[in-house]
TrEMBL record:
<keyword id="KW-0812">Transmembrane</keyword>
<dbReference type="InterPro" id="IPR010131">
    <property type="entry name" value="MdtP/NodT-like"/>
</dbReference>
<comment type="similarity">
    <text>Belongs to the outer membrane factor (OMF) (TC 1.B.17) family.</text>
</comment>
<feature type="region of interest" description="Disordered">
    <location>
        <begin position="476"/>
        <end position="497"/>
    </location>
</feature>
<keyword id="KW-0564">Palmitate</keyword>
<keyword id="KW-1134">Transmembrane beta strand</keyword>
<feature type="signal peptide">
    <location>
        <begin position="1"/>
        <end position="27"/>
    </location>
</feature>
<dbReference type="GO" id="GO:0015562">
    <property type="term" value="F:efflux transmembrane transporter activity"/>
</dbReference>
<dbReference type="GO" id="GO:0005886">
    <property type="term" value="C:plasma membrane"/>
</dbReference>
<dbReference type="Pfam" id="PF02321">
    <property type="entry name" value="OEP"/>
</dbReference>
<dbReference type="InterPro" id="IPR003423">
    <property type="entry name" value="OMP_efflux"/>
</dbReference>
<protein>
    <submittedName>
        <fullName>Transporter</fullName>
    </submittedName>
</protein>
<keyword id="KW-0449">Lipoprotein</keyword>
<keyword id="KW-0472">Membrane</keyword>
<feature type="compositionally biased region" description="Polar residues">
    <location>
        <begin position="487"/>
        <end position="497"/>
    </location>
</feature>
<feature type="coiled-coil region">
    <location>
        <begin position="231"/>
        <end position="258"/>
    </location>
</feature>
<keyword id="KW-0175">Coiled coil</keyword>
Length: 497
């Protein structure tokens, strides 16, 4: 609906009335366009398979790994780390802002004023018959209590509460998203440290094997059974293995310090964080329906809340075109003390009280163009919020599907590399025994060792990647927090977790 516009010069009561009527008509035409986002998702993920797990498992997915050390680190991070406390402080700020906004909406403006003054009058000269003018001190006291209450006849306060509540909901989802991301970061850093510990253990084992081969080669050279170059080659391999072990040891120490910082124990000794040199297979993951992302992912819920807030804000801007009715009751008390006119040297006082009540009407007449511009601007912001919500939903679906596909590939890779590592270990052990018995040369033994090292390194790397991918999958599925249907009503204790 596009009302016709007539340019008139405001200067008479008729023109002002016409502008006011135009504002009311425009307000009636400024209906909520109800911006919506396309949130339809496929029924299933492409190529993903897995056992369905209950929501309680997703809420605290790190317990699925059955690793007490991991669970303790995640719990410590969620209660003590700077990231968790920073997220809680931001949520506390949002709650405080909401309390102030709610009070501003529902508690009327109540200024309490008072005044007191004292004056003195000295009669310097007086001619003619004696009058009523007397010299002396005068005192005046007054106090008033006035209330201004806006009558919400069109739902302006309800729309403003929609903005406030959805802003708080978005802040709560941002808080939960930060905690979920923190839990995932701790788990991934923990498994990365475990991978380094296993690699360091493998490197030390390689040093032991290289030293044994070097001793064998030195003995064979001393007995004249092998050329001296064999001893040189094994010594070089030993030095390389020792250098690799030293490098991995430093990387592990750095990873442990980073993990301590992440959980809020940044200045604790490295020895306080033991890291086992073992890697278990990744636990099974859930394959939830894509539609559950709309309820489980905190970033999706945050984008949804911001769209709802923007829509409510658009309604607030539209309602600004309507008249405002304000009820203003008030009471007052005054007292005056002055010299008595009848009895010189004495004083007289007067105390009085008064009350008032008024109804004010405010119609936005001259600022209608600005209000319409504000509506257009907020309409554009609401459209942006709808598009951001739509993009967040699609990105969440893509991230989850990709994580599931990659995890499935990682699991197949672990199975294949595990079989290959067992065969490589068997081949190396046979070659080592043959070399010790003089049935094979050093070259074939070293080649068998190198094949085993490569297979073992590849297997451990694949296991670590599968574990980290499992963490990524749980996070992508919206794990790490407990969804609430009404986040704005969540207990204030949430921020103290």
């Amino acid at each position: 609906m596009k009302p016709s516009k007539t340019v008139r010069r405001p200067g008479s009561g008729a023109s002002l009335s016409a502008l006011a009527l135009t504002g009311l008509v425009l307000a009636g035409c400024a209906t909520d366009p109800r911006h919506t986002a396309e949130t339809r998702l496929p029924a299933t993920y492409e190529g993903a398979a897995g056992a369905a797990l209950p929501d309680q498992v997703l809420d605290r997915w790190w317990l699925v790994f059955n690793d007490p050390a991991l669970s303790a680190l995640v719990d410590t991070a969620l209660t003590q780390s700077q990231d968790a406390r920073l997220a809680a402080a931001r949520l506390d700020e949002a709650r405080a802002v909401r309390r102030g906004q709610v009070r501003q909406l529902y508690i009327p403006s109540t200024p309490l004023t008072g005044s007191a003054n004292r004056s003195s009058t000295d009669i310097i000269d007086q001619s003619g018959p004696g009058g009523f003018t007397q010299g002396g001190d005068s005192e005046n006291y007054s106090g008033s209590f006035d209330v201004s209450w806006e009558l919400d006849l069109i739902g302006r306060r309800r729309a403003a509460m929609g903005v406030v509540s959805n802003d708080l909901a978005a802040s709560r989802f941002a808080y939960e998203g930060a905690r979920a991301a923190l839990a995932a970061s701790v788990a991934q850093s923990y498994f990365q440290a475990r991978v380094l510990a296993v690699q360091l253990d493998d490197a030390r084992e390689s040093v032991r094997i290289a030293r044994a081969l070097a001793d064998l080669a030195t003995g064979r050279v001393a007995r004249g059974l092998s050329p001296g170059s064999d001893a040189d080659r094994t010594a070089a391999d030993l030095a390389q293995a020792e250098a690799q072990a030293a490098s991995l040891e430093a990387e592990l120490q750095v990873a442990r310090r980073s993990l301590l910082i992440l959980v809020g124990r940044g200045i604790d000794p490295l020895a306080s964080l033991p890291v086992a040199a073992t890697l278990a297979d990744a636990p099974p993951t859930t394959t939830a329906l894509p539609g559950t992302l709309l309820a489980r992912r905190p970033d999706v819920r945050e984008a949804q809340a911001r769209l709802a807030s923007a829509s409510a804000n658009l309604k607030v801007n539209e309602l600004a075109l309507f008249p405002t009715f304000t009820l203003s009751p008030g009471v007052g008390l005054t007292k005056a003390v002055s010299p008595s006119f009848l009895t010189p040297g004495s004083t007289s006082s007067t105390t009085s009280s008064a009350w008032s009540i008024g109804l004010n009407l405010s119609i936005p007449v001259l600022n209608i163009p600005k209000l319409l511009a504000d509506i257009d601007a907020q309409d554009a912001r609401t459209e942006q919020a709808a598009l951001a919500y739509e993009k967040t939903v699609q990105a969440a679906f893509g991230e989850t599907e990709g994580a599931l596909l990659q995890l499935s590939a990682d699991q197949r890779r672990v199975a294949l590399l595990s079989a290959g590592e067992r065969r490589a270990a068997t081949a190396y052990e046979a070659a080592r025994r043959g070399y010790a018995a003089g049935l094979s040369d050093l070259t074939s033994t070293l080649q068998a060792e190198q094949s085993w090292r490569a297979a073992r390194t590849g297997l451990n790397g694949a296991r670590g990647q599968a574990l980290q991918r499992t963490v990524q999958t749980y996070k992508a599925l919206g794990g790490g927090w407990t969804p609430s249907p009404n986040p704005s009503a969540t207990s204030e204790q949430t921020s103290s977790r």
